[in-house]
Hints:
By secondary structure, the protein is mainly alpha-helical. The protein has 5 helices and 2 strands, in the order ααβαβαα. The protein has helices at residues 5-10, 16-32, 65-86, 93-96, 109-127; strands at residues 49-52, 89-92.
Amino acid sequence: MGYDQCSLVSDPNLSAEALCQRLITLCSVINKFTLPIPLEGQGKPIKAMLMAPTAIGPMPNNPNWDRAETTRKRAFPLLKAAGLEHGFSVFDGAQAVPAPGPDGLHFGPDGHQRLGLMAAAAIREALR
């Protein structure tokens, strides 16, 4: 799952620490989930994975974008540490898409392809 850039942009008072705590709680719920009937071949328990969002850039209709970008950058190392402590995976979508599109959030087909390849690699690594 990726945490939502729009939440960061719409709530200028959301701190990186508060965001991290929300996501730790969510990932803990996911990690505790068990299927009522195990799937055939399921060798490992369910494990949450977070994708840190891509960069947030200037948004003509939203003055909060710069605070959101700062929070996004601050949250990633906190989430990496939390993932190690609480047993969930985290990868940084901004490595695949380091610059936002013209509207400050969205990006084109090339960025989506890079992000998909990065997500696939992160999932393969988590399944080892």
